[in-house]
Design a protein that fits this description.
heterodimer; A: 12 helices; 2 strands; 3% strand; B: alpha/beta; six-stranded mixed beta sheet; four-stranded antiparallel beta sheet; 10 strands
Chain lengths: 292, 266
């Protein structure tokens, strides 16, 4: 029973890593840039939701939707103002830019909302579902369900909608996308908006589990490891790897002798290292397939 | 298939005037003027690096010229966005196919109609039309385009441009890397599209024999300039073209190669 319990909390933690990893991969696939501020976008999303729901007292659903809208605008603005002028610059410059962006976001969030831990009030907070000996917090269930719903949405968007397919087209062959008249720049802005919105969703889902503070975005580093394990370029790969890291981490926290539980924090990197040794191209290898 | 040119009446669908295009500091196009009449097939011949591809890129808006003007269907499209040019009816089939490798064949074709706003049923009809012209694509609708052979990918690229309902199609080296039989097949389809669908063609080719056989009018480019232009009948008969592009040798009385006496070739 304890194993099931661990598995469930691992899955809900893994969902959060998976969502942030999804954000990394989306941006990387479309624009070949790595956005190291992905975790901080999650943090920003959580704070904005906190602002709407706790400070302004909006109902949860409205606060959630308003947060998505704001984060969409933030994503487009970041792309327009910061990333678009960087097209054609070396990747390292972009990397430094997004790391700097992370610092700025943390400082801004700290200046507005302060550095104390905050709790996002949710309609489902505090409740516990029980089946026999297993008890699961509603928060954990919300994370899993929310993530599932989001994954289905993203999947349908990429498979079925014209804009979704155009997004894939633009990431697969930018030049050809230009020639058939796909507005590539607009698509890139949209990718940033989507990525920011997915991160914000992750932030809102995780907020009741781990508290909101300006440094909560550091889980982004673990999510980055997940993105690499997943093959960096594969959306399902990133998500699965996030899930895997979350689960293994929970088991490690439980299984390690007392006093050493802190080492469970390194799980993501241990998995990353092992992966790089045995299968450097990741779970779903897109780099290989790109040579078709 | 050459019927020369109707001079005097201005029916040019596409007009380039004094185009100069740069790659950074390098001048790739050094002042080019050309006309493409509605309903014809016009070819640009030239060696590697002559600037043929750059001319097409300048027309479709992938590159902006420093000087000069591009006029398509009485609209000055100089330095327009590629999407806008595509919407006006210019389909660009880029060099080396450039399909979307992980999208299915059908998705690739539908992406060709991305800019169209005239309803799903018309797009569907054009999809059927493309499958009519390229039955091999219909057989592999659901397959990822990256798994197609080179010839099929070329057909897909042409089909994708056709989905725009283009008035003008820019074909960049459609024969590149294809077996002679496929080259002929593609050439036949280009001619059929021109005759049956009324698509005007601007064809860039290194395979001069094929290009001259199917085109009405030809331009010859050398290092960014047009050095010769004529009906393709007369081009095919010109000694320079025969030597440089068709590989025929014309030996003089004393066994010397004729071009050795020339200092410049203009």
């Amino acid at each position: 029973m304890e194993l099931v319990q661990l598995l469930i909390s691992g899955i809900s933690q893994g969902c959060v890593y998976g969502l942030i990893a999804l954000g990394f991969v989306l941006i990387y696939k479309a624009t070949e840039m790595v956005n190291f501020a992905q975790g901080d976008l999650m943090m920003l999303g959580a704070f904005i939701a906190f602002g709407f729901i706790n400070v302004l007292g909006w109902p949860f659903l409205w606060g959630f939707l308003a947060t998505l809208a704001v984060m969409g605008v933030v994503g487009v603005t970041l792309e327009r103002l910061l990333l678009r002028p960087m097209i054609g610059e070396p990747p390292f410059a972009v990397l430094m830019l997004t790391i700097g962006l992370g610092f700025i976001l943390r400082a801004v969030a700290g200046a507005i909302w302060g550095y104390e831990d905050k709790t996002l009030s949710t309609p489902y907070g505090g409740g516990v579902a029980r089946w026999g000996e297993i008890s699961v917090g509603y928060e954990n269930i919300a994370v899993v369900l929310g993530t599932l719903a989001l994954c289905v949405l993203v999947f349908v968007f990429f498979r079925k909608t014209r804009v979704g397919i155009a997004m894939q087209a633009a990431s697969q062959n930018q030049l050809a996308a230009y020639y058939v008249g796909i507005p590539v720049k607009w698509i890139f802005a949209l990718v940033w908006a989507m990525s920011a919105m997915i991160s914000a969703t992750a932030g809102i889902l995780v907020a009741p589990l781990s508290l909101i503070n300006p440094i909560m975005g550091f889980v982004g580093i673990k999510a980055f490891a997940a993105a690499i394990v997943g093959g960096f370029g594969s959306l399902p790969g990133a998500f699965l790897a996030g899930l895997m890291i979350g689960i293994v981490e929970q088991f490690a926290k439980h299984g390690l002798p007392s006093g050493l539980e802190g080492f469970s924090e390194t799980t993501a990197y241990v998995i990353l290292l092992i992966m790089l040794f045995i299968r450097p191209e990741g779970i779903f290898a897109t780099m290989q397939r790109k040579k078709v | 298939m050459c019927y020369g040119r109707t001079w005097g009446i201005n029916v040019a669908l596409l007009t380039l005037r004094n185009i100069e295009t740069y790659y950074g500091p390098i001048m790739a196009i050094r002042g080019i003027s050309l006309d493409v009449e509605s309903g014809t097939i016009v070819t640009i011949l030239g060696a590697n690096g002559a600037g043929k591809t750059t001319v097409l890129k300048t027309i479709s808006g992938a590159m902006d010229p420093q000087k000069g003007s591009v006029v398509f269907a009485d609209e000055n499209i100089t330095a327009w966005d590629p999407g806008k040019v595509a919407r006006l009816g210019v389909g660009h089939v880029p060099e080396g196919r450039e399909v979307f490798p992980f999208l299915s064949v059908e998705e690739n074709l539908r992406m060709g109609a991305f800019t169209r706003r005239d309803g799903a049923s018309r797009v569907q009809r054009d999809l059927e039309l493309v499958y009519d012209y390229f039955p091999t694509l219909a057989d592999s609708k659901g397959l990822a385009a990256g798994y197609l052979s080179g010839g099929q990918q070329q057909m897909l690229a042409i089909g994708r441009a056709l989905m725009l309902r283009p008035r003008l199609m820019l074909l960049d080296e459609p024969s590149l890397g294809l077996a002679p039989m496929l080259v002929k097949e593609i050439a036949d389809i280009v001619v059929r599209l021109n005759k049956e669908q009324g698509v005007t063609m601007l064809l860039v080719e290194q395979n001069a024999r094929v290009a001259l056989a199917i085109s009405d009018y030809g331009y010859v480019m050398e290092v960014g300039r047009i050095v010769m232009e004529d009906t393709c009948e007369r081009l095919a008969a010109a000694t320079d073209i025969q030597e440089f592009y068709l590989g025929m040798k014309d030996q003089g009385v004393r066994g010397r190669r004729r071009w050795k006496q020339r200092k410049t070739w203009r």
